[in-house]
Design brief:
By secondary structure, this protein is an alpha+beta fold. The protein is built from 3 helices and 2 strands. The chain has helices at about 20-30, 60-65, 70-75; strands spanning about 15, 35-40. A two-stranded parallel ribbon has the order 1-2. Strand 1, helix 1 and strand 2 (about 35-40) form a beta-alpha-beta unit. The chain is flat, with a radius of gyration of 15 Å. The N and C termini lie far apart (about 30 Å).
Amino acid sequence: MELSVMPENSFHACIVAGDGMAGRTAALALHRAGLDVLHLSDLSCATRPDARTTAFNSASIGLLQRWGLWQAMNEHAAP
């Protein structure tokens, strides 16, 4: 993970705060749409265990497939 300090007068088309699935997906979608995105993340979350489960509906799976992400995720999924 790359950390950087923003220049004082930097500009971003949008700012996404949150490092969960929604935040990461939003940041990726906006970036792929050509916007300059600043994604804010709480790095302390990366070291804490997370026992939550997640279910994906068919529309979400379709979106992840179109972005080329589902194939890697599906390898770690439980039926």
